[in-house]
């Protein structure tokens, strides 16, 4: 009834190729941005901002990164956490060398460092594929993690062996360190994530993205059609690592405040992979939905017994949480193997003909 | 020059000077290699028959060993507990086939891979809920596993072999022989190989895929139980074993995902390479390289043989 594209004519190629060709979608995204930028910071409390919204956004960005590699290019990676770590450590080094430069510049720059490392570890992807590649990315995961632990230079030889985020300001407002308010951190994070999502969306809709998808669907065929595998695959690794690196830097600087090497363990990689798969492979909005679901699910599960007044010990809740999350993953995969993004599309399709079924 | 000497000459000099130490290191590598090979074997069995990359194999090792020890702690006699643990693995195999594999048949590989993550989480939760998360001692004495060590006097020094390690190697060899017999000579084994070759062709000659999958998962469960007992007897039964199980992945790469001999040879290469590397080259970079060396070795191999040592040659067509 309200969601109907009838009568919206496209008169130019640009209009046809627009990211949101339907007017209702444009209104929808404007409303979402309005809610995210204005309503949540104004009405959300500090706890909600700092322990729900900020982590979800950070993971969304990491999930977009992995989705570019796994969902769009079809290369499975289990090294996400390590690339996030590269971003975080690079950002820390850069900002301690040049404290005067704006932190946002270094956050983006650390993404490029991570992209370089990612492209290096992406080299084997030219020879090997599928699950063999998974193990190659595991090599990156374990090797980089070992570097984080063993090379004290990375954390400026401080005794704790952890990144301790210094205080940095943006337009005179403190955005990192202990004195930054959740609202300030949230708004900076949201701006970066929104900008990078917009960039990713353009990337995957353009020539590069189509080359990635061709490689995903069948790389030999893509090669025969004149797509250069070397550049395409390495670019996918680089862009993916760029996103993961920025996500890692944002995670440490705007969320954790300090980070030990244990933050970037393999379980973190698994978590991001869950988000991508549950959200939907090859879908940007799916990355957001997957991140929100996987991150919030344990929080909700932890709060549920107390809210319902059930007398369950917290250790038992912890174990039950594992079982429930595991079972839900299986149920989700059986019910909708294409993830939340597909559910979203089905919903939109239903909405299109609502309230008349035909 | 010094760096080159330390990297390329000195380790060999050290090996030559203390051959007993070298033999000891080789033996340690061999033993851990056997255990890697056992975990990899579980992976290969399932991958061959159902095309599922079973991430849950590591937790199955922990879970089966935990069931055994946990039941014994509850007062069940050791061998009855062993039988019950086998029964639990059977129930698990049937449940996995019913609840996970059957509804997900014909889905892309990555979806099935993710589903085994779900199984992993469920098993972690179940294991901790029922038996608790604390490390437990393996009931080695009650199962009449040998303990103590044999000291060999060779090469001008001592080499100490733990009896449990020898037992592990022997049991692994026996089990692999039994599996080979099972695969080659029995009716079910032939059906398993048929399914491994082609699902559709196997179905068309009347082999029940569901039954075969349950059997394969059960076999992998038994392999997991044996691995769990052996590994538990060397250290203890705890959830940290699960991370070590990830070491089976480079073994798989080396050997190829579909090859049982590959899993064994790969396991031994990785085990020995890792221990030698850690012992002779590790100190040069501050140690701890064991955590990634295996992956490095596997990666180096992969660049030359993308399908692993014994894997089937990958032929691609449009």
UniProtKB/TrEMBL annotation, chain A:
Keywords: Cell membrane, Membrane, Transmembrane, Transmembrane helix
Parts of the chain that traverse the membrane: 27-44, 101-123, 130-151, 186-204, 234-257, 263-285, 319-335
Cell compartments where the protein resides: Cell membrane
GO molecular function: branched-chain amino acid transmembrane transporter activity
InterPro entries to which the protein is assigned, alphabetical: ABC_transp_permease, LivM-like
Keyword Cell membrane: yes
Keyword set includes Transport: no
Membrane topology: Multi-pass membrane protein
Gene Ontology cellular-component annotations: plasma membrane
Main location (coarse class): membrane
Protein name listed in UniProt: Branched-chain amino acid ABC transporter permease
Species, as recorded: Alsobacter soli
């Amino acid at each position: 009834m309200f969601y109907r594209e009838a009568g919206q004519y496209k008169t130019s190629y640009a209009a046809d190729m627009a990211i949101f060709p339907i007017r209702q979608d444009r209104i929808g995204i404007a409303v979402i941005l309005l809610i995210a930028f204005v309503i949540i910071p104004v009405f959300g409390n500090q706890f909600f901002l700092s322990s729900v919204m900020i982590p979800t956004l950070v993971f969304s960005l990491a999930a977009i990164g992995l989705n570019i590699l796994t969902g769009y290019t079809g290369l499975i990676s289990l090294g996400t956490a390590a690339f996030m770590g590269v971003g975080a450590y690079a950002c820390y080094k850069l900002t301690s060398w040049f404290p005067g430069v704006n932190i946002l510049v270094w956050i983006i720059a650390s993404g490029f460092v991570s992209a370089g490392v990612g492209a290096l570890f992406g080299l084997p992807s030219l020879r090997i594929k599928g699950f063999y590649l998974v193990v190659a990315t595991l090599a990156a995961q374990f090797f980089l993690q070992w570097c984080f632990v063993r090379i004290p230079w990375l954390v400026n030889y401080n005794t704790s062996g952890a990144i301790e985020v210094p205080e940095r300001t943006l337009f005179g407002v403190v955005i990192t360190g202990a004195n930054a308010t959740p609202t300030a951190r949230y708004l900076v994070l949201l701006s970066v994530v929104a900008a990078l999502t917009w960039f990713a969306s353009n990337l995957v809709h353009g020539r590069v993205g189509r080359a990635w998808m061709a490689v995903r669907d069948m790389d030999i065929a893509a090669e025969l059609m004149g797509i250069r595998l070397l550049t395409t695959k390495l670019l996918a690794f680089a862009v993916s690592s760029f996103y993961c690196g920025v996500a890692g830097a944002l995670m440490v600087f705007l969320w954790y405040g300090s980070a030990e090497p244990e933050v970037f363990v393999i379980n973190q990689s698994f978590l991001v992979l869950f988000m991508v798969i549950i959200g939907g492979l090859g879908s940007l909005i799916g990355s957001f939905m997957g991140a929100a679901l996987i991150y919030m699910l344990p929080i909700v599960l932890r709060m549920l017994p107390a809210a319902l007044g059930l007398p369950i010990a917290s250790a038992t809740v912890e174990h039950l949480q594992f079982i429930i999350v595991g079972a839900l993953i299986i149920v989700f995969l059986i019910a909708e193997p294409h993830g939340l993004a597909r559910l979203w599309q089905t919903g939109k399709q239903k909405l299109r003909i609502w309230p008349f079924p035909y | 020059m010094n760096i080159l000497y330390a990297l390329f000459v000195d380790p060999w000099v050290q090996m030559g000077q203390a051959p007993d130490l070298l033999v000891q290191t080789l033996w340690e590598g061999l033993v851990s290699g056997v255990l890697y090979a056992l975990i990899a074997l579980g992976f290969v069995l399932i991958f061959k028959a159902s095309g599922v990359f079973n991430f849950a194999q590591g937790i199955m090792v922990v879970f089966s060993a935990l069931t055994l020890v946990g039941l014994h702690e509850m007062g069940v006699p050791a061998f009855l507990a062993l039988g019950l643990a086998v029964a639990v693995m059977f129930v698990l195999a049937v449940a996995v086939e019913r609840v996970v594999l059957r509804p997900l048949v014909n889905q892309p590989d990555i979806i099935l891979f993710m589903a085994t993550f779900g199984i992993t989480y469920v098993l972690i939760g179940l294991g901790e809920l029922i038996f608790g998360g604390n490390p437990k001692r393996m009931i080695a004495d009650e199962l009449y596993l040998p303990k103590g060590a044999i000291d060999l006097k060779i090469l001008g020094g001592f080499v100490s072999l733990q009896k449990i390690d020898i037992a592990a190697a022997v049991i692994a060899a026996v089990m692999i022989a039994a599996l080979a017999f099972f695969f080659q000579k029995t009716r079910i084994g032939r059906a398993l190989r048929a399914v491994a070759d082609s699902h559709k062709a196997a179905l068309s000659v009347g082999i029940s895929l569901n039954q075969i999958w349950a059997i394969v998962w059960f076999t992998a469960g038994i392999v997991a139980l044996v691995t769990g007992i052996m590994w538990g007897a060397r250290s203890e039964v705890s959830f940290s074993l699960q991370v070590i199980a990830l070491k089976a992945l480079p073994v798989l790469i080396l050997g190829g995902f579909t090859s049982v001999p590959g899993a064994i040879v790969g396991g031994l290469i990785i085990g020995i390479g890792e221990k030698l590397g850690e012992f002779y080259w590790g100190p040069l970079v501050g140690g701890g390289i064991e955590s990634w060396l295996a992956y490095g070795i596997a990666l180096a191999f992969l660049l030359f043989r993308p399908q692993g040592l014994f894997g089937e040659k990958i032929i691609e067509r449009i």
